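Thread: assembly with ligand

MN 10:42: here's the input set. Chains plus the small molecule as SMILES. Want everything predicted jointly, not piecewise.
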Amino acid sequence: MSCSKYIGCWLSRTLIETGSAKGDGIQYALNAGFQMVFSIEIDPAYYEHCVKRFQGNGRVILMQGDSKEILPEILAKTNEPVTILLDAHVTGPNQKHGEKLCPVIDELKAIIDHSKSDQGKNLRHIIVIDDINWLDGKQEWYGNISVKDIKNTLKDSGYEITEQTKRYCVIQRL
Ligand SMILES: C[S@@+](CC[C@H](N)C(=O)[O-])C[C@H]1O[C@@H](n2cnc3c(N)ncnc32)[C@H](O)[C@@H]1O
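BT 11:07: finished. Tokens for the full assembly:
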């Protein structure tokens, strides 16, 4: 089960989610009390599904494309601490994906780059990476990324893994 069901554990005013799928994570976030939810989806069919599902909901902003490109655009407009759920990846073979099968390392790099900018330097975001049980090369179609790669990416960034379960990890700026 996706940890998006428990996203209220990391409540802030705004959630940025990568990987909308059918929008269940968005709905959990709205129910949990996030005032604004930005969600990025690469697959046009899922994007259109979510457009219909959240039509007329002013608290939801949906964007279609590769999170590698769109996440930096959203961060560039972010000037407060937010919760970021990194959940963009294929969930099986032969599915739509961006430049990478799993963009999580590029997504982390975008967050770290923003945290070094004048606009982002004092912002302490909460980052949650879902489905880390699929990492460590157990699923070749996931992209062969390991938790070690995540730790190497975070090195010297000021961000650290503060909680790790079998399913997800939480990263915070200490
Ligand atoms: C595990 S599902 C997301 C589940 C959703 N967050 C939830 O809690 O209901 C992963 C989604 O990421 C999408 N995806 C895969 N690669 C992506 C990328 N590079 N950028 C944006 N979305 C991507 C897939 O199409 C899929 O819909």
